[in-house]
Amino acid sequence: MADTLLASNDPAAALSARWVRMAGTDRMVGPAAHLAAERERLAALTWNEFGVRRLGATLGAELSGLDLRTDLPDAVIDEIRRALAEYKVIFFRDQPVSPEQHVAFARRFGDLEVHPFIPGNPSVPELVRFQKTAEVGGYENSWHHDVTWRLTPSMGAVLHALHVPEVGGDTLFADMYAAYDGLPDEVKAQIDGLTAVHDFMKSFGRQVPPDKMEETRAKYPLVEHPVVCTHEVTGRRFLYVNRNFVDHIVGFEPAESDALIDQLCSQADYPEHQCRFRWERDSIAFWDNRAVQHYAASDYWPEVRIMERASIVGNRPAG
Q1: pLDDT by residue (tens digit) across 243-293?
Q2: Rounded CA gap, 276 and 269, in Å?
Q3: Which active-site residues does the annotation give?
Q4: CA gap 86, 99 in Å, rounded
Q5: Domain ranges in the chain?
Q6: Residue 56: partners with Cβ closer than 8 Å, 6 or more residues away
Q7: Eight-state DSSP code of residue 205
Q8: Residue 206: which of 305, 139, 112 has the closest Cα?
Q9: What DSSP assignment string belongs to 258-304?
Q10: Per-residue b or e along 97-111, where b marks 16 or more CB atoms closer than 10 Å to that residue's CB
Q11: Segments in the chain below pLDDT 50
């Protein structure tokens, strides 16, 4: 028996232009209307010192016409800083910087960290080195802000591709302003004023010898950051929780805490909140470690992928 057409309109015609909850789930579907104003605002921006090609609806842009090996004028650095605040993550192609040039560029934006748990470039300790091979796999494939276990997590990071596989190994970025904006109002009300406890042990506990644990814990104690923070440059609110480093939400029972963390972290999963960067040798990504989370796709094993990262010291997050 042939099916009978029961409707004359697209099913979406009965819905307003907004996210709606899919029946029986916590997942949202429909037009991401909460992105529209930011998408349009970014489309209207103009730049003097470089060209721009946007990647995602509300984040990500490739900047062209710059050579990061040179001592760029202050006016150029200032406009790059503005582009970082606007696009949340910016990219540069064909930048064969030396380790020293990499560090010199990153240092134009602030003091640099030395990571205690990931080996660095042997000659330049400010550069964390991610050297993935058949023997050392990529485990960075979960959404996270970097080093939120620090009292003052990094403001941003500059990542340089030294060797990349022919296919795979992309890095994805998620807009955490949009992640917050896309939450239902009742969830925003629930999380306003909440605090999360962050701990290096969740990801780096294996790196610490037993006889150094007490000393390391004293140096990097548990820290508390707001679940929702206010960006010090833009004044916008963003989600600041991640599965890699958040241990629990203060004042919640463990099961409740885990469920809320998972619900909030899943906001990064929506492709509407993301952009994706395909690496080439000597590409560089510079991201705002507050405004975005990132995810390094681990789909290239056993091929080689070598990256170096300079991280810029930030301030303590505020609600």
Answers
A1: 999 999 999 999 999 999 999 999 999 999 999 999 999 999 999 999 999
A2: 12
A3: 144, 146, 294, 309
A4: 27
A5: 49-313
A6: 173, 175, 274, 275
A7: G
A8: 139
A9: HHHHHHHHGGGG-GGGEEEE---TT-EEEEETTTEEEEE----TTS-
A10: bebebbbbbbebbee
A11: none
Which of 62, 113, 135 has its CA nearest to residue 283? 62
SS3 state of residue 14? helix
Residue corresponding to tokens 């560090």: 103
- Give me the pLDDT at residue 111, please: 98
Torsion angles phi and psi, residue 161, rounded to 5: -90, 120
The pLDDT value recorded for residue 192 is: 95
Rounded Cα distance between 32 and 26, Å, is 15
Q: Find, among 151, 204, 189, 183, the residue nearest to 273 by Cα.
A: 183
Q: What whole-number percentage of the chain has pLDDT above 70?
A: 95
User: What per-residue confidence (pLDDT) applies to 202?
Assistant: 87
Give me the architecture of the 49-313 domain, per CATH: 4-Layer Sandwich (3.60)
